[in-house]
Design goal:
Blueprint (H helix, E strand, L loop, with lengths): L1 H18 L5 E5 L2 E2 L2 E2 L5 E4 H20 L9 H13 L2 H4 L9 H15 L7 H23 L4 H25 L22 E4 L2 E4 L8 H19 L6 H20 L3 H17 L4 H21 L1 H9 L3 H23 L10 H8 L14 H26 L5 H11 L1 H4 L2 H4 L1 H20 L1
Length: 450
């Protein structure tokens, strides 16, 4: 019976990881201001949430059974004491590779969740603050569950690669045809190339739609593919002795790399390049194999840049109108953030309330023009104050500390964290916050197993 439950939990996890990129959502609240939708004020239940809840419940039940937890306890204080005592003696804290001084990671993640829920009290939009805090709680729970469950890394990498390959094939089709489609079941949206707010690359021949995949924005597609590529390369090096596995990974990683290129996400390009550089530096004995995949990537890049050279030049030069506007907008977002931090230095404006606060200060702007600052650290400072920012930094420090004996994984996670400086979606979107904690959990899990 226990073996069956563990297998069920394992395959639920695989299914969750595969379906995570698809944005199927049942909307509970949509707000339109001046005829325009306030995207960051939308509240909904995602299809993946039901699967995640089932996974978390079964994972919690298994955890309590593994601890031989006895339910008939007389009071809540006794329950708390038993859980703390059992956690102290669990493999998470006894493992010499994952000793956490003063249980720092547990305390920091719990503190961030508590502060987020407390911010409901002073938030302008209390329902939105509760919604965001609930997502944060589920994401942190996912992190701890990933550390607890048992799964086959080879199967997980296959699922990750397969999911990213499907996204890349969709992205390639979108870019080449300059069309996408709306489908409520798959959670995809239609984007008009000439509509305001659509992400495009512009040159003398006109506007070109960037590849979205199934995501709300190309930067999310690019960031997701960059993370999967780095993990895929890391594990490709482990299976270079298996010809069938090596061939499968070479083909699929090339497809995923094409999707990354066509996202035109400069932040994703940057963190992938840095991550690949780190792998080259610290995997000296595998450089022969690394050059194989690097040459394939270079040939793939050459094909795309030769066919669409003016688009890539436009993206890199920063001289075209849209590129200049992008730089100007990001500068404006930072200035808006400074105003919010000045007024809400200690506790912030409330979880998920950043765009609401900006609109309150700039009512003359169209709501679609109100965007989060493209820096997660500044964003957290705006929403949860300096206290929330320090707690979040502590989470990152404790996470990296747990990888101090594994330099390759340490630097892979560091390159992943660099995304936090260049975009906001790892904090503001449902997919992003789940991916953030999921990737942290998977990388720490691999460090524990190595």
């Amino acid at each position: 019976m226990r073996k069956y439950q563990n297998k069920l939990l394992e395959y639920l996890f695989y299914l969750f990881v595969f379906l995570l990129p698809w944005q199927t959502v049942f909307l509970l609240r949509e707000i339109f201001i001046g005829g325009e939708k306030w995207q960051y004020g939308t509240i909904g239940i995602y299809g993946i949430d039901f699967l995640m809840l089932l996974f978390l419940i079964l994972s919690s039940v298994n955890y309590l059974r593994d601890l031989n937890f006895q339910f008939p306890i007389s009071n809540f204080q006794s329950i708390f004491n038993v859980l703390i005592s059992k956690f102290r003696n669990s493999d998470l804290t006894q493992n010499s590779k994952f000793k956490i001084k003063n249980y720092g990671l547990l305390i920091a993640s719990g503190g961030l969740i508590i502060l987020s829920f407390l911010s409901i009290v002073w938030s302008f939009d209390k329902l939105l603050a509760f919604y965001f805090s609930s997502k944060l709680f589920l994401a942190a729970s996912l992190f701890w569950s990933v550390l607890r469950i048992k799964f086959d890394w080879k199967k997980l990498i296959f699922i990750l690669i397969l999911g990213a390959s499907l996204q890349s094939i969709l992205a390639i089709g979108q870019f080449l045809t300059q069309q996408d489609f709306a489908n409520a079941i798959l959670g995809t949206s239609h984007h008009e190339v000439f509509a305001g707010g659509t992400s495009v690359v512009e040159n003398q021949s006109g506007r070109w739609l960037r590849a979205y995949g199934s995501f709300p924005h190309p930067n999310m597609l690019g960031g997701y593919l960059a993370i999967i590529l780095l993990l895929g390369i890391f594990f490709w090096l482990k299976y270079t002795h298996e010809n069938k596995t090596q061939f499968f990974l070479l083909i699929t990683l090339s497809i995923i790399f094409s999707g990354l290129v066509l996202s035109f996400s400069r932040s994703a390009w940057l963190i992938f390049t840095i991550g690949l550089f780190f792998i080259f530096i610290f995997q000296k004995e595998k450089r022969k194999e690394l050059w194989k995949i690097a040459i394939i990537f270079l040939l793939t890049l050459l094909i795309w840049t030769s066919a669409f050279s003016s688009l890539f030049f436009s993206r890199f030069s920063g001289e075209d109108r849209l590129e200049q506007k992008s730089i100007s907008d990001r500068t404006e977002y930072v200035q808006q953030t400074k105003e919010i931090i000045k007024d809400n230095f200690w506790l912030g404006a409330g979880a998920g309330n950043y765009t609401k606060e900006v609109f309150q200060k700039n009512p003359q702007k169209s709501i679609w023009q109100i965007q989060p600052v493209h820096n997660v650290f500044l964003l957290i400072w705006s929403e949860l104050g300096i206290i929330g920012l320090l707690i979040f930094i502590a989470i990152i420090i404790f996470t990296l500390f747990s990888l101090k004996n594994n330099p390759v994984l340490f630097l892979l996670l560091t390159s992943y964290f660099l995304l936090l400086f260049f975009d906001h979606w790892l904090w503001t979107t449902h997919f992003g916050i789940l991916l953030f904690f999921l990737a942290m959990g998977m990388i720490i899990k691999e460090a524990l197993n190595s």
